UniProtKB/TrEMBL annotation:
Keywords: Flavoprotein, FMN, NAD, Oxidoreductase
Organism this protein belongs to: Dyadobacter endophyticus
Reaction(s) catalysed (UniProt annotation): 2 a quinone + NADH + H(+) = 2 a 1,4-benzosemiquinone + NAD(+); N,N-dimethyl-1,4-phenylenediamine + anthranilate + 2 NAD(+) = 2-(4-dimethylaminophenyl)diazenylbenzoate + 2 NADH + 2 H(+)
InterPro entries: Flavodoxin_fold, Flavoprotein-like_sf, FMN-dep_NADH:Q_OxRdtase_AzoR1, NADH:quinone_OxRdtase_FMN_depd
Function field: Also exhibits azoreductase activity. Catalyzes the reductive cleavage of the azo bond in aromatic azo compounds to the corresponding amines. Quinone reductase that provides resistance to thiol-specific stress caused by electrophilic quinones.
Name this polypeptide is given: FMN dependent NADH:quinone oxidoreductase
Annotated EC: 1.6.5.-, 1.7.1.17
Domain Flavodoxin-like fold: 2-184
Pfam families: Flavodoxin_2
Reported cofactor(s): FMN
Residues where FMN binds: 10, 16-18, 96-99
Length: 197
């Protein structure tokens, strides 16, 4: 039985469609006995700090070179790493804001990626991700519909997949979308959206 990490990032609490979709994914995995433990992380309740000069400096230090005070600065990033490292399955949800992922989720990604921890450089200069063998489900909610946007305007799935594969070694990402939430009379059937799961 596997352990899942459920990350939510919508500002709209219980009204959130992205949260509704990711919760449906979690419930389906639990009902099929694929997941036994779910760790919930609502980023609106524990927002990631912005990267600043001090934190970036800490990210690039060798683990042994960090003293007790400096470890405090890394507490959030260490928590992000530990939660994802202990999970077999990660279910991420995000609203679309201005064509991108929520700033909270981007902030979480910025706390996650660390050289020597989530990826390392090989002797030939190439990179290898360290968090292999994990499965990601991505739930995206948008007011509009991808089919109506100009070609090349998909930025959330492509960005998250690129970051995970380049800087974490996570390549197994399945995306589900709840679209058209801003349209009048919208009625969402989460089970139908995730029927291929
Ligand atoms: C600040 C803001 C920006 C948004 N930008 C977009 C956008 O660029 N494209 C889009 O289709 N919907 C956009 N929307 C609509 C949201 O994606 C939509 O309400 C979605 O359901 C939000 O996810 P949630 O229900 O999980 O909160 C935006 C909404 C807000 C509040």
């Amino acid at each position: 039985m596997k352990r899942a990490l459920h990350i939510t990032s919508s500002a709209r609490g219980g009204q959130s469609y992205s949260r509704g979709l990711s919760t449906a994914i979690i419930n389906k995995l639990v009902s099929r006995n694929e997941v036994s433990t779910v760790v919930e992380r609502d980023l609106t309740q524990s927002p990631p700090p912005f990267l600043d000069e001090t934190l970036i400096w800490e990210f690039y230090k060798q683990a042994g070179a960090t003293n007790g005070e400096e470890r405090q600065l890394l507490a959030y990033a260490d928590g992000v790493f530990n939660e994802i490292n202990q999970a077999d399955i990660i279910v991420l949800s995000t609203p679309m804001y201005n064509l991108g992922m929520s700033a909270l989720l981007k902030g979480w990604l910025d706390q996650l990626v660390r050289v020597g921890l989530t990826y390392k450089f090989n002797d030939d200069g190439s990179k290898s991700g360290c968090l292999t063998n994990k499965k990601v489900y991505l739930a995206i909610a948008s007011g509009g519909k991808l089919a109506f946007w100009p070609e090349g305007y998909e930025f959330i799935e492509s960005h998250i997949k690129a970051v995970f594969s380049t800087y974490a070694g996570i390549t197994d990402v399945s995306t589900y979308r709840v679209e058209g939430t801003a349209m009048p009379g919208v009625a969402i059937d989460y089970e139908e959206i995730i029927q291929s799961l």
